[in-house]
Amino acid sequence: MTAFEAAAIPGQPPPADSVAPRDSSADAPTSVARLNGTIRDFVARWSTVWVEGEITSWNVRAGNVFARMKDLRSDAQISIRVWSSVRARLPNDLAIGDHVVAAVKADYFVKGGDFSFIVSAMRHVGLGDQLERLEKLRAQLRQEGLFDPARKKSIPFLPHCIGLITGERSDAEKDVLRNAELRWPQVRFRTAYAAVQGDRSVPEVLAALARLDADPDVDVIIIARGGGDPQTLLGFSDERLVRAVAAAATPVVSAIGHENDHPLLDDVADLRASTPTDAAKRVVPDVGEQRALIAQLRARATGRLTQRVSHDIARLEQLRSRPVLRSPEPIIEGRAQEVWLLASRGRDTVARQLDAAARTTAELRASLRALSPAATLARGYGIVHLDDGRIVRDAADAPAGTPLTVTVDRGSLRARSEGEISEAG
């Protein structure tokens, strides 16, 4: 029975020099040594486990190793210790950034109150295993459409400001800046330094990417590293980084500087450059080449314009050399008589049509006058109307007292009927 278990049993008296941690109080506190011993005895019951992670520190002191391991997908870390006797059995090339699996057993150091894990075995994770997991992730991201060429953004022809993510004072930085300035001396860079390998690589690159992507002056972002073995390039296949690049609003260029076993960043980036130098050449146009191209286009345009003008001048001279254009007077004179005849014929035709129309109009006017009651009225006749507008044709229609309107040649008269006049009267 451990001290921790003994302390947990109700009624079990604690040792004379202290009390059990569970039974401690302000009046009867336990001692630090007692507490640490209880923790040590409890932790000692844990069995050995195999754990996978990345070595983030590796310090050798007096033959023993004091190190730390980090989870591959999060920031969780543990402290590990490798005694010299065990270290002699481990691979001699273990270093920071290595992906390893280790057999560890929990240990609690009573004197310092430190919790760590004692390593009994450690080995590299096979590169083949890592690449297999990488290919599975690649297939998943491809299925999601993150590698689709249709979603990739075009690189601006002449970026005003280029964002650069790289290691501080690295060869990759020097290559990009030198080659870019050689091609276009006025090019501007906004550099964000980040670790390009190890446990700090992914979070620092992510932070730099977010900062440059949010900068409205940055037109394109280059992520550059001077190459390396596949093991040290695994950070550029991290799923968090790949998805962040896919979601970036600014075009991203991958310039990791290797050819084989390319990381997932190459597939998701809007442009993949084989080296940092290649990235500079593909992002920044060459001012000399552009000037030569402009001169070539200008010469071509001048030649085409000269050729067109010469062709049109020759065509114009050809037209002017024709007889009809060289001496147009005979044609005009020959047509003048024809025009005079046509005009005379037109005048005669119009005159005849006007005469015929005048006769027709006179005939119609005479017919209208003959049919019009106005001529009858002019001879002294009148038209008698009732107030409702009816014309009186029968004396019976206007009995005595009926108001009447009499229309004569010049105006109308009001009258009243005195009744019908008999024939005798």
UniProtKB/TrEMBL annotation:
UniProt catalytic activity: Exonucleolytic cleavage in either 5'- to 3'- or 3'- to 5'-direction to yield nucleoside 5'-phosphates
Domain of life: Bacteria
Residues covered by the OB-fold nucleic acid binding domain: 31-123
Record keywords: Cytoplasm, Exonuclease, Hydrolase, Nuclease
InterPro entries: Exonuc_VII_L, Exonuc_VII_lsu_C, OB-fold_nuc-bd_dom
Oligomeric and partner information: Heterooligomer composed of large and small subunits.
Gene: xseA
Domain Exonuclease VII large subunit C-terminal: 146-365
Family: Belongs to the XseA family.
Function: Bidirectionally degrades single-stranded DNA into large acid-insoluble oligonucleotides, which are then degraded further into small acid-soluble oligonucleotides.
Chain segments carrying region Disordered: 1-29
Name under which the protein is recorded: Exodeoxyribonuclease 7 large subunit
